[in-house]
Specification:
It is a single chain. Helices cover 15% and strands 42% of the residues. By secondary structure, it is an alpha+beta fold. It has a four-stranded antiparallel sheet, with no helix packed on it. Strands 10, 11, 12 and 13 form a four-stranded antiparallel sheet that branches. It has a three-stranded antiparallel sheet with strand order 5-6-15, with no helix packed on it. Strand 5 and strand 6 form a beta hairpin. The radius of gyration is 20 Å and the shape is globular.
């Protein structure tokens, strides 16, 4: 009986430490979609630190300690605004007070184009629903290297599509604009 109680205490302590680490220090995530390809692939496992942007009480919207705000170019994990319980993994493009727009697939922040260079690397991928199911026909694409706030990363763009346009839109204070 005494031995069983000791084992139960040890297991309880281990569970408590694991919950505290997951709630306040870091949490593992699986990348759910192909929106961040080629930087992150579907099914990649990542670990996100929790304390960088402040400490929150788990399951309630109360902050214990404020942290810094996310910066342009950083990858963040956050809950989907319309689907609680669904995590999104995206790159911060603009922060509160910025005006963001996309003209012919070129991102502009406060009217200044994000540095972008076309890569000569050949590219062909499956896109859309087929991408999520790891199948479907491959389509030609183009790779670009972008630099935002000192962060360099590669983005992929489908060939033969009408260019995307968005905005301009002003990001409210305390919010971010993220893309993937």
């Amino acid at each position: 009986m005494v031995k069983a109680l000791g084992i139960a205490r040890s297991l309880g302590g281990a569970v408590m430490v694991a919950l505290l680490l997951r709630s306040f220090v870091a949490e593992a995530y699986v990348v759910p979609s192909g929106s961040m390809i080629p930087s992150l692939e579907i099914g990649d496992r990542i670990v996100a630190t929790k304390f960088t942007f402040g400490l929150k009480v788990p399951f309630v919207p109360y902050k214990i300690v404020d942290g810094r705000q996310p910066r342009r170019g950083e990858i963040v994990v956050f809950m989907h605004p319309q689907e609680p319980g669904t995590d999104l993994v995206k790159r911060v493009i603009a922060v509160g007070g910025d005006t963001v727009e996309v003209r012919s697939n070129q991102i502009l922040i406060n009217g200044v184009p994000v540095k972008r260079e076309r890569l000569a690397t050949p590219c062909a991928r499956a896109f859309g629903a087929a991408e999520e199911n790891d199948g479907g026909p491959e389509e030609p694409c183009v790779l670009y290297r972008e630099e935002l706030n000192g962060q360099c990363y590669t983005v992929i763009q489908r060939s033969g599509r009408e260019p995307d346009d968005f905005g301009p839109a002003k990001v409210p204070p305390g919010h971010i604009f993220a893309m993937g």
